[in-house]
Amino acid sequence: MKKIFNSVLINIVSIIRNIKIQQRLILILIMLSVVPLVITSIFSYNQSSSAIRSKTSTYSSQVMNQVGVNIERELNRLENDSIEIEFSSLTQNVLTNIKNMSAWEIEIVQLTMKENLVKKFSFLHDVSDVLLYTNDRRRIVAYGDRSFKLNLKKEFLDTYLKELEEKEGTPVWKSSNIDVEERLVKFATSAEQMNKSDCILLGRAVLSLETREIIGTLLIRTNERYFSNIYRNIDMGKNADIFVVDSDGIVVSSRNTKIPVAKQYKDQMLIKELLNRTGSQDKTFNMSIDGKKYMIAFSYLKDADWFVVSTIPYSYLNAEVKGILTNIMLLVMGCSVLAVLLSYIFTLTLSKPLKRLINTMNEVKRGNLSVSIIDNSTDEIGEVVGNFNTMLNEIKNLMESVKLNEKQKREAEIKILQAQINPHFLSNTLNTVKWLAGAQKAHNIEALVSSLIKLLHVSMGKGDDFITMGEEVEYIKSYINIQEYRYYDKFRVVFEIEEDILDYKVLRFLIQPVVENAIIHGIGPMTEQGLISIKGFKYNDVLKIRVTDNGEGIPRERLCKILTVDDYENKSKFSGIGINNVNERIQINFGDEFGLHIESVPKLYTTVELTLPIIS
Fold first, then answer.
1. Which residue from 47, 140, 43, 46 is spatially nearest to 90, judged by alpha carbons?
2. Nearest to residue 304, comparing CAs of 101, 68, 597?
3. How many CB atoms lie within 10 A of CB 607?
4. What is the DSSP string of 37-70?
C-alpha cells in the first residue's frame, strides 16, 4: 500500500509540475477558498432545509393538535346536548307512549321540543335538524324546518339506525350530503344557501331511564361548515389542505371543494398510513399523493374515530429552501469570482516578474549579454533578480576579459607568424629566381623580387593591423605573381572587385591565406590549368569577399572540420596563417555574426566567402 501511495503521489506531483506556476497558484487558491465555501454552503443548506422542515413539521403537528382540540370540544358539546335531549322527559315520554298518543298530542310535543331547542341551537351550534325515531321507524321532528324536513334515503337511514342500535347508546358520527337525502324536487335555491348541503350526523340509541332498554334513536344534523370554519382560515402554505376523515377513509369535513365531503378520500394509502400511526408519538410523515410529495401532519380524535389531516406540498416547503439555495449559490458565485480575481492579481505578482526573468535568461542563452531587469521589489523574486543582474554583469566582465586576452593572444601569435617567413618558401622562391636568372638572363628577376619585397613588407609590417581593400588586392596580386612563376601557367586568376569598396578597411593578410589554400590544395593536384575567381562587393550593408576555384574541392568529412583545425603540414605556404585562423581573427575583431563560410563540391569547385563589416 505504501508503494502504491508513493507511486500515485509521484504521478500527481509530476502532473502538477507540468502546469504553469500561475495556473497552479490560481487553482490552489481557488480550491482553498471556494471548496471550503462550497462545503460550508452545502452544510448550511442542508441544515437550513432540515430546520425549516423540522419547524414546519412541529408547527403543522401543533396546529393539527389545536384544530383537533377545537373540534373535539364542539363534538363534546353536541354529545352533551344529545344526552340532554335523550334523557329529557319529553323525549322519554314521546318515545315510550307514542302508540297511545294522538296526532295532535304528538304535534304539541314537537312544538314544545322545538321551542326548547331553539334557545340551545340558534347561536351556539349550526344544528339544522334534530330527529327522533321510534323503534318502528316513526319520525318525530324535535328541531328543524318543518317545511323542508330532513328526509334521509331509506337504505342509508336503515343502515345508520341499525348501527346506532348496535352501539346501544354510544354516539356515532357520520358525514353525509344531499346525495343521501330524498327530495321530491330540487332546491329552489342552492343547497349551500339553504344550509342543506354537506353535514355531519350525530346519532345514538335512546335508552329508557327506567328499563335501560332502547326505546328509539336520536339524530342531530349539523352543517359541515360549522367544523370547517374552525380551520378554514389557517394558512399552512400554498396549495396546502386541511380536512377531516374517519377511519373508513370517508371525508367528514373539508374546506376544499376538490376533496368532497361524504366521499371516499382519493388516496387510500394515506388512510392506511394514518391507521398505522394512530398510536405513534410522531404525528408527521412524508408520502406521495398523485405523484407529488407531501408532508402529512395529523391529529387523532379518539372519541369520534376521526383524523384531522393537513397535507403540505414539498413544492411549498422547497420554495423557501430554493430561495436559500439561490442566495447561497449567488454567494458562492460571487465569492468564487472574487477568489478568481484576487488569485489572478496575486499570481501576477509572482508570474509576471518570473516571466520577465525567464525571457531575459532566454536572451542570455541566445548570447545577448546586454540585457538587464529592473525590479525594485524587496521580496524573494526581487532578490533573485538582483542576484541575476549581478551575475550577468560578472559574466559580461569575464567575457570581455576573455575576449581581450584571446585577442591579445591571437595578435601576438599573428605578429610572430608574420615575422616568421617560411624558410622552405623562401628557398623555393630563390631557386626559382636562380633558375630564371640562368634561363632568361635575368629579365624577370626584377618583377619577381619586387613582388617578394612587397609580401615581405606586408608580412613584417608594423603598426595598424588594418589596411585598405585596395592595398590587400595589390598584395594578393604580388603573391599570385610569385606563384605564377613557380607553377608556370598552372592557373589563371580573375579579379572582380567593385571600386566602391577599395577604400574600405580590412584586416592585414585576410585574403592571402584563402587564395594560397586555393592554389596549393585546390589547383595544385590538378593536371590541367585551373581558374581562381576573386570577387569583392557590398551586400546588405556588409562587405563580401568571395574566392572560388575549380580545383579538387574539399571532401565532406574534412569540410566539417576545416574551420576548427589549422593545417600547418604544408611547408610551401608563405606563412602559418590558415583558414581557421582567418575565421577566428574576423570573429575576435568583429563578432560572431561575421566570419568565413565554405561551400565545396569535390572535383568541381570550392567557394570561400568572407563576411566583414564595412569600415570606412
1. 140
2. 68
3. 16
4. HHHHHHHHHHHHHHHHHHHHHHHHHHHHHHHHHH
Q: Do 601 and 548 meet the contact criterion of CB atoms below 8 Å apart? A: no
Residue 612 vs residues 253, 418, 468, 508, 533: alpha-carbon distances, Å: 113, 22, 13, 13, 19
b (16+ CB within 10 A) / e for 114-124? beebeeebeee
Residue 225's SS3 state is helix
Q: What is the model's pTM?
A: 0.53
C-alpha cell at 537: 562587393
Q: Report residue 156 as a C-alpha cell.
A: 342509508
- Which helix (H) or strand (E) covers residue 357, if one does? helix 314-365
* 8 A C-beta contact, residue 467 and residue 505: yes
- The answer, yes or no, to whether residue 1 has pLDDT greater than 90, is no
Write down the pLDDT at residue 581. Answer: 84
Grid coordinates of 196: 342543506
Q: Which residues have CB under 8 Å from 188's CB, separation 6+? A: none
The H or E element that residue 594 is part of is none
Q: Please tell me what DSSP assigns to residue 208.
A: P
pLDDT of residue 415: 59
Confidence tier at 530 by pLDDT (50, 70, 90): very high
Which DSSP state fits 277? T
Q: What share of the chain is helix, strand, coil (3-state, %, to 5)?
A: 50, 20, 30
C-alpha cell at 219: 339524530
Compute CA distances 221 → 87, 156, 226, 466, 475, whole Å: 18, 14, 11, 136, 145
Amino acid at 219: L
**Residues 132 and 142: beta-carbon distance below 8 Å:** yes
At 19, list the grid cell: 502546469
Phi, psi of 167 (to 5 degrees): -80, -15
pLDDT digits over 181-202, tens only? Answer: 876 555 544 444 444 568 899 9
C-beta neighbour count of 608 within 10 angstroms = 26
**309 in Cβ contact with 274 (< 8 Å):** yes
Q: How far apart are CA 202 and CA 219, in angstroms?
A: 6
Residues 6+ apart with CB under 8 A from 609: 544, 545, 546, 547, 596, 597, 598, 599
Query: Three-state DSSP class for 369?
Result: coil
